Amino acid sequence: MRQLDDFLPRTRIAYLSMEIALRPEMHTYSGGLGVLAGDTVRSSADLQLPMVFVTLASRSGYFRQEIDRKGHQIERPDHWEPAEWASMVPAMVAVEIEGRPVWVRPWLYIHTSPGGGSVPVLLLDTDLDQNDAANRPITSHLYGGDQAYRLKQELILGVGGARILQALGFAIDVYHLNEGHAAFLPVELLRRFRRMAHAPGEEGDGHDRARVRDMCIFTTHTPVDAGHDRFAYELVAATTSDLMPIDELRGLAGADMLNMTTLALSLSRYVNGVARRHATTARDMFPGYEVTSVTNGVHVGTWAHPAFARVFDASIPHWPIEPELLARADTLDDGAVWAAHEEAKADLCRLVRETTGTELRPELPIVGYGRRMTGYKRPDLLFSDVERLRALARDHPFQVVLAGKAHPKDQAGKNLIASLHALARELSDVLPVVFVPNYDMAMGSILVAGSDVWLNTPVPPMEASGTSGMKAGLNGVPNLSTLDGWWVEGCIEGVTGWGIRSADSGADDAAALYAKLGETVLPLYERDRKGWIWMMKQSIAKVGSYFNSQRMMRQYASEAYIR
């Protein structure tokens, strides 16, 4: 097709990710991993990098979150129709699954930058008449189903992704695997090279592996052991015989179970974590592998609130393409910065009112928190000591807005959501606490910009990066976070925000959080507006100018893509 043909001559880098957040109406993402991939798309178009992106169509999305009267999460399908946003590509490839060919056809979405650059995104779809009823839904539910379903999805992404790129005529030099979900791609490349006739005197197996490794780079995102997909070899053998002998897979992916992260590590020449501290954690988790770091960033043109974008446009031309220019934000007019923040805060108050019926008071500070609801992220740390929290709210009135989804199979995470609702009811006489359901890309942009303080409380060192705090900082919202992930690099105490420094125990972290709120953060907001606005400008200048996806993609291009 004509649109795709325009990209074929120049495209040399393929980026594969199970999820990519392209726009709120396309439910092809669940959270931070997908939003990061979406920002990668956007900055690649801005910088006119020669890239193509591959993901799954995920027609039923991750899930749409509803909350019942008792605070229990209810999951609903989050359907969207690819034909409304993408064009069908008249090409199919087959992937063998359980002894039958499963046909895969891509949809083409083209993201075009305001500056005119564009990149193609291929969304792989198995919902085809050529497939039987059992295989049509393989690409429907993001992170849905059982282990067998997940294995099939990852075969479609890795094997199907490699085959569709070849079938469409892409001449790819570098494959970027975003998380281990795509680790079957280098296995498919190895299979492809082995089927080629070796020239006389050419090396065999060792040469082919070296060739594959030279073409692949791998970004790992999770320091949580349970977040690395593992499959029983019996399940792999029953699902596909189209890869390589199981004994050889064991040598690449682990002796006991097929670990997708280990497989990617074994077949990639360049491996990185997504923050400096995360790279250290990854090296500890996978000793023997060289893991460097490329700290994540956010797409400033997408995540700057329109009111702040207008302020930036007036004083810092070209900031969306050259975010490093935001270093000049410390010279912005105080009145313009505060007026932009008031507009962003009004949008958040309106969202809360329309979604929950709660009226927030714009004159009081809002502490915002938006994360996946799971134990190690500790969304309940602020509520560890209810009586101390009550006393804090009486002395320094403030408000709390929470949002986030728990994985459908994470019962502990669901219990956290119910507990937060119960705590909100318990504290309603002194501290407004609001949980906004169905946290997504659109809501996130309002929450990060409209809060006064951005709270993040993971258990160190279990935060890989944490890009929501970068978005907050870009909008002049100081961060208050445990020193983990990107915040180890971004925290300048009393300048860009505050670190929660304590011992490793949760009780000490809670005490440190209460002390920082009661002795430093809330008194500054109440008594020193000029000092607060100074911090807002410092946050924009120091967070926005560096923790952006333009810098991130330039770093990938210079350190990983160019050999």
How would you sum up this structure, described in words?
With about 575 residues, this protein is α/β, with parallel strands linked by helices. The protein has two domains: about 1-195 and about 205-295 and about 550-560, Rossmann fold (3-Layer(aba) Sandwich); about 300-545, Glycogen Phosphorylase B (Rossmann fold, 3-Layer(aba) Sandwich), CATH 3.40.50. The protein is built from 20 helices and 20 strands. The protein has helices spanning about 1-5, 30-45, 145-170, 185-195, 205-215, 235-240, 245-255, 260-265, 275-285, 300-305, 305-315, 335-355, 385-395, 410-425, 440-450, 465-475, 485-490, 505-525, 530-545, 550-560, and strands spanning about 15, 50-55, 65, 75, 85-90, 95, 100-110, 120-125, 175-180, 215-220, 230, 255-260, 270-275, 290-295, 365-370, 400-405, 435, 455, 480, 495-500. Strands 1, 2, 5, 6, 7, 8, 9, 10, 13 and 14 form a ten-stranded mixed β-sheet that branches. A six-stranded parallel β-sheet has the order 17-16-15-18-19-20, with helices on both faces. The two termini are about 30 Å apart.
Sequence-ordered SSE layout with sheet pairings:
Blueprint: H1 2-5, E1 13-17, H2 32-46, E2 51-56, E3 64-67, E4 73-76, E5 87-88, E6 93-97, E7 100-112, E8 118-125, H3 147-168, E9 174-178, H4 184-195, H5 205-215, E10 216-219, E11 230-232, H6 233-239, H7 246-253, E12 257-259, H8 260-266, E13 270-273, H9 276-285, E14 292-293, H10 300-303, H11 306-315, H12 334-356, E15 366-370, H13 386-395, E16 399-403, H14 411-426, E17 433-435, H15 441-450, E18 453-456, H16 467-474, E19 479-482, H17 487-490, E20 497-500, H18 506-527, H19 529-544, H20 549-561
Parallel strand pairs: 1-2, 1-9, 2-8, 9-10, 10-13, 13-14, 15-16, 15-18, 16-17, 18-19, 19-20
Antiparallel strand pairs: 3-4, 5-7, 6-7, 7-8, 11-12
